[in-house]
């Protein structure tokens, strides 16, 4: 520094406190810069997929209903013949007929019923029952006598109700105790099977309903008569879970929507948003995803338990496209997003088209092609890493089950090119055919899933055989 006499001298040395103060300023500046970088990077990571990655680490795949191991072409396990079921030797289990449904009548338990006939004219019809896990007959086959029209049979609690619709005459019903095989009623019923006829028989997994246009939905009693009544409803009209479903009496929003039990007709009003219309649903274990449309034409999805109470208040923008295990898929204007049951996004798949999805272990198979494109193509997504994997040109939506390694299809459409096969399995690692069972010309056979077991009806309709890998 310069003195007044023109002589330059050095400034006084900084004191120790001043040096320390400067050092702390530099340190604080460095820390602030570092924090800004870290926070900024963290925010960028979060919004560039980090939030989804973190959410996937918290997701656990649900318990899945897998088939027993079927990686190799299956061989016969247990066998049950028509005579073993208590049927006459000339009886046939009638899968090959143009019946209303296949003659293997499943329930949500291992209890399985079988429709058979003996030749006529006129044919005589029979109902038998087996344990789907063991093949053991549950009671001796019951004769329902003669009928010009093929009966259709429905579980109804502990009973089975079979109905033959004579079109221009009153229908005939047979009510059989599904535990003992005792026929408790045989006689007329007003239930109808023909499309458009009223009241229309409507099956749910464990109970039979009747829907009557303009009148509502009815339960069915021990004499195939209408019992409890929910007025002005059109029936369940969709999926049933744990004997619970929906009906929208007025079709005009939440005030008209009821949940009801298909077991006893008990009904209650779900706690839906009051400013939006309920337009659809898909169940998962313990609850359901509900689709809504607001007055401003905004679509959103919200999650509820089976009592109709919200699991959260979160509204997921977009259109509900399905449920796969404990994953919810929602379509918005630019992508399909996958959410967990907390409404947390786990994955986003670009493209604004509706996509079916199918969960196997921790792999979500998502349809790549449009619904009207054939063959359907599905792509694998690892729900741990979020990585997209290989594609498979097969229809997961029409499969009857998987053991986690192969997926099995059993065609039911006689016009399908696949009708030449009773069943075919695909390896989920390679997407190649693992094994197939051909359908000979004139075969009465079919393959059905009973619990975790595949069961084949023999080509001549005389034997039920479990399919296993030993």
Word description of this protein:
The protein has 470 residues and is mainly beta. Helix content is 9%, strand content 42%. The chain has one helix and 36 strands. The protein has one helix spanning 16-58; strands at 75-81, 92-93, 104-106, 111-118, 124-131, 137-146, 152-156, 159-164, 171-177, 183-189, 200-203, 208-212, 216-220, 226-231, 244-247, 258-261, 267-268, 276-284, 287-294, 299-305, 316-317, 319-324, 327-331, 335-339, 345-350, 357-360, 363-367, 378-382, 388-392, 399-402, 406-409, 421-427, 433-438, 446-450, 453-457, 463-468. Strands 2, 3, 4, 5 and 6 form a five-stranded antiparallel β-sheet that branches. It is globular, with a radius of gyration of 31 Å. The chain starts with 15 loop residues before the first helix and ends with a strand. Mean pLDDT is 88; it is low at 44-48 and 250-254. Keywords: Membrane, Transmembrane, Transmembrane helix. The chain crosses the membrane at residues 24-48.
Task: Summarize it.
The chain has 470 residues and is mostly beta strands.
Mean pLDDT: 88
- End-to-end distance: 98 Å
What value does the Rg take, in angstroms?
Answer: 31 Å
What spatial form do the alpha-carbon principal axes imply? Answer: globular
- Ranges with pLDDT <50 over ≥5 residues? 44-48, 250-254
Number of helices: 1
Oligomerization state: single chain
Helix/strand/pairing class, anyone? Answer: mainly beta
Main beta-sheet strand count, sense and barrel state: 5 strands, antiparallel
Total number of β-strand segments? 36
Query: What percent of residues are in strands?
Result: 35-45%
Helix content: under 10%
């Amino acid at each position: 520094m310069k003195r007044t006499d023109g002589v330059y001298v050095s400034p006084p040395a900084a004191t120790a406190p001043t040096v320390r103060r400067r050092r702390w300023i530099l340190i604080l500046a460095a820390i602030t810069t570092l924090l800004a970088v870290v926070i900024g990077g963290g925010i960028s990571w979060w919004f560039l997929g980090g939030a989804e990655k973190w959410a996937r680490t918290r997701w656990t795949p649900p318990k899945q209903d897998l088939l027993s191991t079927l990686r190799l072409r299956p061989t016969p396990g247990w066998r049950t013949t028509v005579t073993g079921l208590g049927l006459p030797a000339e009886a046939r289990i009638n899968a090959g007929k143009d019946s209303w449904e296949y003659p293997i009548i499943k329930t949500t338990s291992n209890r399985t019923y079988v429709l058979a006939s003996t030749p006529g004219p006129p044919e005589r019809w029979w109902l038998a029952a087996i344990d789907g896990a063991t093949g053991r007959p549950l009671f001796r086959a019951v004769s329902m006598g003669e009928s010009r029209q093929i009966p259709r049979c429905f579980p109804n609690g502990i009973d089975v109700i079979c109905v033959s619709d004579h079109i221009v005459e009153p229908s005939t019903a047979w009510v059989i105790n599904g535990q003992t095989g005792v026929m408790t009623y045989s006689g007329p019923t007003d239930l109808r099977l023909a499309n458009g006829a009223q009241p229309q028989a409507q099956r749910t997994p464990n109970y039979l309903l009747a829907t009557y246009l303009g009148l509502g939905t009815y339960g069915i009693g021990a004499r195939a008569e209408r019992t409890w009544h929910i007025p002005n409803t059109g029936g369940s009209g969709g999926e049933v879970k744990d004997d619970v479903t929906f009906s929208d009496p007025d079709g005009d929003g939440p005030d008209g929507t009821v949940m009801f039990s298909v077991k006893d007709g008990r009904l209650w009003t779900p706690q839906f948003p009051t400013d939006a219309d309920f337009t659809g649903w898909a169940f998962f274990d313990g609850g359901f995803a509900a689709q809504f449309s607001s007055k401003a034409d905004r679509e959103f999805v919200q999650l509820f338990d089976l009592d109709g109470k919200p699991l959260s208040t979160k509204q997921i923008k977009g259109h509900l496209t399905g449920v796969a295990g404990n994953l919810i898929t929602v379509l918005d204007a630019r992508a399909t997003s996958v959410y967990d049951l907390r409404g947390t996004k786990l994955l986003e798949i670009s493209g604004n088209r509706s996509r079916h999805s199918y969960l196997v272990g921790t792999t979500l198979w998502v349809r790549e092609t449009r619904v009207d494109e054939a063959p359907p193509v599905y792509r694998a997504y690892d729900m741990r890493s979020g990585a997209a994997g290989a594609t498979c040109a097969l229809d997961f939506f029409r499969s009857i089950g998987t053991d986690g390694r192969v997926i099995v299809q059993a065609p039911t459409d006689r016009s399908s090119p696949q009708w030449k096969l009773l069943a075919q399995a695909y390896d989920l690692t390679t997407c190649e055919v693992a094994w197939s069972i051909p359908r000979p010309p004139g075969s009465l056979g079919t393959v059905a899933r009973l619990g975790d077991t595949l069961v084949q009806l023999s080509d001549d309709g005389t034997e039920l055989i479990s399919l296993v890998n030993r």
